[in-house]
Every structure is written in structure tokens, then in C-alpha cells.
Amino acid sequence: MGSDMDALMLRSLQGYVRDTFGPQIWQAICCHAALSVETFEPMLRYDPGMADRVASHAADVLGRPVETVWEDMGTYLVTNPRHEGVRRLLRFGGSSFADFLHSLEEMPGRARLAMPDLVLPMVTLREIGPDQFEVQCQSRLKGMLRVLVGMLTAMADDYGTLCLIDPDAGDCISVRILDSFHGSGRRFDLALPEK
Amino acid sequence: MNAAPLGHDIGIGIAGLSQFMPMYLLLDAAGHVVSAGPTLLRVLEGQEVIGARFHDLFEVRSPGGAVTVAEVLDRAGQRFRLAPCHRPRIGLRGLGMRLPGEEGVLLNLTFGIDLVSAVRDFGLTDADFAATDLAMELLYLAEANASVTRELRGLNLRLEGARMAAEEEAMTDPLTGLRNRRAADLFLERMCSARVPFGLLQMDLDFFKAVNDTLGHAAGDFVLESVGRILREQVRAEDCVARIGGDEFVIVLPNTIDPQTLQAVAGRIIAQVSEPLEFAGNLCRVSASIGIVRSVDRLSPDAPQLMAAADRALYAAKHAGRSQAVLLVTDGS
Predict the structure, then answer these.
(1) For residues A49, A51, A57 and A60, what is the CA-based torsion angle, rounded to 10 degrees?
(2) Predicted confidence band of residue A3 (pLDDT cuts 50, 70, 90)
(3) pLDDT (mean) for A150-175
(4) Average pLDDT, chain B
């Protein structure tokens, strides 16, 4: 049993659209994309490229660029309480936003610890200057870079860091940290309370 | 500064020690605490640590029988397991050594497998661990694993739900909502192999073809649905009612073998089915013939045989003038 990026992206897109716009809109997107199912399973496999295809239909139905759809989905994954686990796993990356950026390169390795056959996109971080970074993200999925942009934006907020995050035309995102202690950020306890 | 080779004697001081080993414990020769690392102090919060005796702060789990730090080092060599006296739930693992010359003892402790509860209980943060400690990776892994397991459990539940729905659909006659032929066969086989005594009713509608031919298929479907409703009302939850063909029905009644009871059930069904039904302003009149057999009338009941016998009983009922139920006790086969 394993997972792949198309499955994770499709499941996330489904959650984002249903939670943000309602189940009817998701139904309309599935209908527009002529899908035989309306539910994607994160642990199953789908045709490569299916996530990008469904997202372009979502963009049509929602009437906004596909890049915006992916970015908003990235933000949703980090900020929605139903996906608190995603935010927590990312926060284990470091005690500051800069630390967290450095941990991005470890992400594929970390994912493999939990799911040996999950291949996450390769992320490389270049430190261009003090508080200035370039995040390169190589993925076969066209939407991946934009999802990362959305997630980085939300994580900066989570750490209480003020920064500028801009994707360039290629596969890089430029990140400039303006103020590491801009806000109080969200609290992060290393261990979840006992149930 | 003397010129001893680098590493011969490293003097990193208490501050350096605290950074490299935030859970160190330094004891004098008598086993009294001289100093402790900042994370260990958080674990021992509320205790008088400095000057306390080792065995007043910790309970030794292994090596067995050791109480004082000297006994620990003598028996275990360098590795041992402890728990703080005031928090026995948190196990600690350690490594210790006697310091040359000064007659003191240096211990370094770690949480081992109780890491998650320790982090929760003491509200530890990543600043409480040495940068080289794998604690963060372990915490990360514990949570990542829990998420994956949760996802898998969810997937299993959703697949099980889908499987049950598909199975239900495969066993149901869509028009009447009764079971279908396949479900009835399975039910019969289960009853036979479990040796549950049962009565089997096979029913055929009389004059159904006339309704279909004169009033159309919609009227025919309406009649079938109505008969389905009647049958559902006449049986118990544990009985099986199925439509096995066009206007053929089967009813299996587990633990019901009394001939009078079976005849009474059949009689009630025939009476109700024979009530005229109104469909689109027309009256539909049908009736029913029923053949009855019992599993206990055979030496070794098997499903196909019983169905064949019920079919013969039904034929006899039709021959006897319709709207009748015939119980066939033995037919020589």
C-alpha cells in the first residue's frame, strides 16, 4: 500500500474545494472533468497527470487561474484545522521560519520514514544573502510549485514571520524574510495532548 | 597554556557540557549532585536537586538490586536504566563514568522510548535537546506514523462501506426491494448446511400475464411492487423473501415447520394478494398459488432439491384450482 503525489494532490484538492466552496461545486468540477468518481483516496494510485488535469477543470468552474487554485490549496492544507497534522509535521522542521526553510531539503527523506514508497518532489534551498533564499522545486506535477508557494506563505504566518514569497517563471520560489519576529505566530507543542 | 596534544584533556566547562549534554548529572564521590543539565533540571522540577543524593532522586530499574550510583556503575559497567522517584512513569536511559582524579561521577541521561510522554509532561521544546539528538526525528516519525495509520483506517472503513453497499445491491431485486434469486439460494444453502429447520414457500402469481397484457408493463410493475410490500409485511426480520423470477417469489421461514402455521402464513398472503389493486383508474386483479415444503421432511436437505420439491408443490396448487397453498410432505423423490 502506498501513495503517490497525484493521489495526495487530488485528495487535497477535493478537501479544499469541498470545504471552501461546498460539495456541489466539487460535483460540478468532477462532472466538468467527466470523472467516473467523485472521491479520491490518498492511499490509492491514479493516472499520472490526473491532478493537473482535474485542477484545470477546477480553475474553469471556479473562474480563476489554475495557479491561484493550487496556491490557495497549499494555504488551506496548512491553515485548515482538519489538516492540523500537516502543519504539525511541517513545524517539526525547525524552531524558526529560516530553520524550516532549511528543513525543506529533508522533506523527501522525512516522508520516506513514514511511507517508504512515497516520492515527494525534490526541493533545493539556496541561501542568496542574509534572509534571502531561493527554493527550487522539481516535480513532474505542474501545480506543485504553486502548492509550495501557498504552503510557504501560510507557514511564514504560522511562525509569525513577515516575508516576501514570489514564484519566478521557472521552478524557483524567491523568499525574502523581512522580519522574523513580526507577529507572535501560532503556538507549537512538540507533543499532542494525551487523549 | 601548556602544549598538551589537542583532545588530551578537553575543558569545555559546565556551560559547554550543558549544550552538548542537556541531561547530564555531575555527582561527587559521595553520590551528591554537584550540577545538572538544564533539561534534566526541568524533569526534576520541584525537587531539591543540588546537594541531593542520587538515590533520593532516582529509582534504579536496571541493573537489578543497585541503589546508589556506585552500585550502578559497579554492576552495569556504563549503561543503566532509571526513573525519577517523583515521576516513575518516565523511564530514563543512561551512560556513566567515574571521572579520573577528582573522584566524581558523570552521567548522561536520555528519555529513550518514553520520549513522547516526557515531552508532553514537561512541555519540552526543541531547545531542550542537543542539536545532535534524534528526539525531533522520533517525535516527527511518531506523528507521521499516526497520520498514515489514521488515513489507512479511514480508507478501510470507506472501502468496507462501498463493499457492503455493492454486496447489498448484488443481493437485491431493484423493482421490489426484496432479495433476489442469488440471495435466496445463498440463504437456503446456509440454512441447509447449518441444519436449521425451515419452511419454504414458493409463490407464483395467478392472472399476472393478463394484467401485463391488458394494462401494460407499468401496471405489471405496480402489481409486483405491491406484492413485495405485502410479503415484507407478512414475514419476520429473520425470514428471507425474494423475487426469483418474473412473478415468482420464494419465502424461507427459519425454525417454522408447523404445518398449520405454514398454511396460515400462505393463506394470509393469498388473501392479501387477491385484494384488487387500483392502478391509473383500472382495477388489477391477481391471485397467488403457493407450494410449501419443509426441510425436516427430507433426510438430508439440500437447496436445489428443496426448490424442485417446492416447485412441484406449487404445480399441485395451480392444478388444484389456483389461489391455494399446497404443503407437500413427501413426493417420493
Answers:
(1) -110
(2) low
(3) 94
(4) 91
In chain A, which residues have their Cβ closer than 8 Å to the Cβ of B136? 92, 190
DSSP letter at B5? P
Q: Is the Cβ of A18 closer than 8 Å to some Cβ of chain B?
A: no
Q: What is the pLDDT of residues B149-185, one digit of tens each?
A: 988 898 899 999 999 999 888 999 999 999 999 999 9
Q: How far apart are alpha carbons A23 and B248 in whole angstroms?
A: 43
Same domain, yes or no: B67 and B145:
no
Which residue range is the domain that position B142 belongs to?
Answer: 138-170
Domains and CATH numbers, chain A: 5-81 (3.90.1520.10), 84-179 (3.90.1520.10)
Radius of gyration of chain A (CA): 17
- Do B186 and B323 have their domain in common? yes
pLDDT > 70: percent of chain A: 98
- Please list every residue in chain B whose beta carbon sits closer than 8 Å to the beta carbon of residue A115: 148
Nearest-neighbour CA in chain A from B219: distance (Å): 35
**Which chain B residues are closer than 8 Å to A43 by Cβ?**
151-152, 155
Inter-chain touch B151–A43, beta carbons under 8 Å: yes
* B240-243/B105-110 β-pairing: unpaired
Contact A134, A123 (CB under 8 A): no
Q: Which residues of B touch A (CB under 8 A)?
A: 116-117, 119-120, 123-127, 136-137, 139-141, 143-145, 147-148, 151-152, 155, 158
Domain check: are B119 and B154 in the same one?
no
Q: A88 — contact with chain B (CB < 8 Å)?
A: yes
* pLDDT at site A1: 40
- The tens digit of pLDDT for each residue in B250-277 reads 999 999 999 999 999 999 999 999 999 9
The confidence score (pLDDT) of residue B3 equals: 62
Judge: B143–A89 Cβ closer than 8 Å, yes or no. yes
| Residue A73: partners with Cβ closer than 8 Å, 6 or more residues away | A12, A13, A16, A147, A150
